[in-house]
Design a protein that fits this description.
mainly beta, Pectate Lyase C-like, 44-stranded mixed beta sheet, elongated
Length: about 375
């Protein structure tokens, strides 16, 4: 029975091998084979492999899996090893191996489309190198991270990672783009695992992603110049968003129902604007560092203070802080301007300056509030 077949393209009535390879079509390609460089292959049946790895794919090459599955007969064996550059894998599953799909450096610019990597001992999908793309993939119930990437300029969209023992998505690198992905119910194992999205790097972009019901932080981002917009973090067993570094932007994100802070942001020059933090089992927002711009956010119904800042030289303006079970806005900083905020219905006080009478070098002006510490009349206005 033919398991994999080499396909050709027709042009002007003549057949030629994709990528110009002179290799003839093979009647049967089985476990342990190396595909490429060059050519296009199709999986025509499920493949159960006792070889290590099940397949090696060397780019540039195409592997169309046609909805079939590659499985390892022992979970000490690797699934698909991807080498070279520009390999393309689509529409299939890999299960029951040590690592599901592993791309080693040097290499990169690989594309995985609609690939399912599940029930592996280590990572589901692990790629090193730059410019890789994952579209509509899923990585579920793996012992390590669902998706692990090391490199720059990778793009991941419409993919999911659930039930993994490491992180949902773990990435080290710069200028990566993540959009419309879901990391949910990752239990982790020992130590700092179980995070939905765990990133170390600079100038990464996150838009429209969801982290829900993970056993640790929803989003953990370390680095500078990262942008997080329109993401959601809900029901995680720790902080919703943790961002540590300089000049990061958080805008229009929502954090709700997490067991610790909704947002914790540290570093210099960060912008936290138009975010929502509601119903978290600790603080709504905690901002450390210097020169942060904290504007237009909503903090409501959190079990500690709504919005707290420490450090120096922040701007806190136009925020709506209500119904939190400790201070509404709590400032333990110097050189900070707190203006045009609304803080009502919080467990008293609505506004608090930890510096006491005189508010040190902080400026409070134009705020709407019920109670304050120090009490009115005071430096808090």
């Amino acid at each position: 029975m033919q398991i994999l077949r080499r396909t050709t393209l027709l042009a002007g009535g003549a057949a030629f091998a994709l990528a110009g390879s002179a290799l003839p079509a093979r009647a049967q390609v089985g476990c342990g084979e190396t595909l490429g460089p060059g050519g296009s292959f199709e999986l025509t049946a499920n493949l159960d492999c006792a070889t290590d790895p099940a397949l090696t794919v060397v780019g540039p090459v195409r592997l169309e899996m046609n909805g079939f599955r590659i499985a390892c007969t022992l979970n000490t064996l690797d699934g698909i090893i991807v080498q070279g550059t520009g390999a393309k894998l689509s529409r299939g599953a890999v299960s029951g191996c040590d690592e599901g799909i592993r791309g080693d450096a040097p290499g990169g610019r690989h594309t995985l489309t609609a690939i399912v990597a599940s029930d592996h001992v280590a990572a589901g999908i692990s790629l090193q190198g730059d410019g890789n793309k994952l579209v509509g993939c899923s990585a579920d119930r793996n012992g390590g991270s669902g998706v692990a990437l090391t490199g720059d300029g990778n793009k991941v969209s419409g993919s999911s990672a659930t039930g993994n023992g490491g992180q949902g998505f773990a990435v080290v690198g710069d200028r990566n783009v993540f959009s419309g992905n879901v990391a949910a119910s990752n239990p982790g194992s020992a130590g700092p695992t179980g995070r939905g999205f765990d990133f170390v790097g600079n100038q990464n972009r996150f838009k429209g992603n969801t982290a829900a019901f993970n056993d640790n932080w929803g989003f953990a981002i370390e680095g500078a110049g990262n942008k997080l917009t329109d993401n959601r973090s809900a029901g995680n067993d720790n902080w919703g968003f943790f961002v540590d570094g300089a000049s990061n932007l958080l805008s229009r994100n929502t954090s709700s129902g997490n067991t610790n802070y909704g947002f914790r942001v540290s570093g210099a020059g960060n912008v936290i604007s138009q975010n929502t933090s509601v119903g978290n089992a600790n603080r709504g927002f905690t901002i450390d560092g210097s020169e942060a711009r904290i504007t237009g956010n909503l903090a409501a119904g959190n079990t500690n203070w709504g919005l707290g800042v420490s450090g120096a030289d922040h701007l806190v303006s136009g925020n709506n802080v209500r119904g939190n079970l400790s201070a509404g806005i709590y400032v333990d900083a110097t050189g900070t301007t707190v203006t045009k905020n609304q803080a009502l219905g919080n467990t008293p006080p609505d506004l608090r300056d930890a510096n006491g009478a005189g508010c040190d070098a902080n400026t409070w002006a134009g705020n709407v509030f019920g109670t304050s510490d120090p009490p009115a009349p005071s430096c808090i206005e």
